[in-house]
Design goal:
- The protein is of the alpha/beta class.
- The chain has one domain (about 15-175): HybD-like (Rossmann fold, 3-Layer(aba) Sandwich), CATH 3.40.50.1450.
- It is built from six helices and seven strands.
- It has helices at about 5, 40-55, 75, 105-110, 115-130, 155-175, and strands at about 25-30, 55, 60-65, 80-85, 95-100, 135-140, 180.
- The strands form two sheets. The protein has a five-stranded mixed beta sheet with strand order 3-1-4-6-5. Strands 2-7 form a two-stranded antiparallel ribbon.
- The longest helix has 20 residues, at about 155-175.
Length: about 200
């Protein structure tokens, strides 16, 4: 992502208004997870796939949230619809897919898989109490197979990636978002650590 020090006014630039720190978009697609713990980075990998295989309208932002916590607030404040993609601890068989909507999300995050889930819960709670609740939030993902150190997804999670991407596209279509497929999209590289970025 952009340099956090400057975004939050800790660098040389002076923050003069909320517009200086917020990245406003009608729809935000947020991929979260730790890509150096294999399947924990599933949400980021799905976001990468969507970013590299489709052209998106200006009303949509794709965010690699990595393992950021409350810092995610600047990317989702003011968004009307938020789609979070994540590896999800549902105490289920590895590969089980999940879809959570609005109130069910906070209930799920009472039992957290990792620090980034704490971040999502905290961000949604903060926006609610400050009067900036996001009207429509959906979380999709799958139970991980392997959380050992390593940057490559397990074979099982790789197989699920296009399925979850299709579920994301279906949700976005329900929200009136229909991205244009790219004819010559690059193959996914699961052996690198992506830079955090807003696309």
């Amino acid at each position: 992502m952009n340099a956090m020090a400057d975004v939050f006014g800790n660098g040389s630039a002076r923050v003069s208004s909320l517009d200086d720190v917020l990245h406003r978009a009608e729809v935000t697609i947020l991929g979260v997870g730790n890509v150096i713990l294999r399947d924990e980075g599933f949400g980021v990998r799905v976001m990468e796939y969507l970013a590299s295989h489709y052209d998106w309208p200006d009303t949509v932002q794709l965010v690699d949230g990595g393992t950021l916590g409350i810092e995610l607030t600047q990317y989702v404040t003011g968004t009307e619809k938020l789609l979070v993609i994540d590896s999800i601890n549902g105490h289920a068989k590895p590969g089980t897919k999940f879809r959570l909507h609005n109130e069910a999300i906070m209930e799920h995050f009472q039992d957290k898989l990792s620090a980034h889930e704490v971040g999502i819960q905290d961000v949604l709670a903060l926006l609610t109490v400050t009067g900036h609740k996001i009207p429509d939030v959906v979380v999709i993902g799958a139970q991980p197979y392997d959380l050992e150190a390593g940057v490559e997804l397990s074979d099982g999670m790789k197989a699920l990636l296009p399925e979850v991407a299709d579920e994301a596209l279906a949700q976005l279509k329900a929200w009136g978002i229909d991205p244009v497929p790219r004819e010559n999209a690059d193959e996914m590289d699961y052996t690198t650590v992506p830079e955090e970025a807003v696309k």
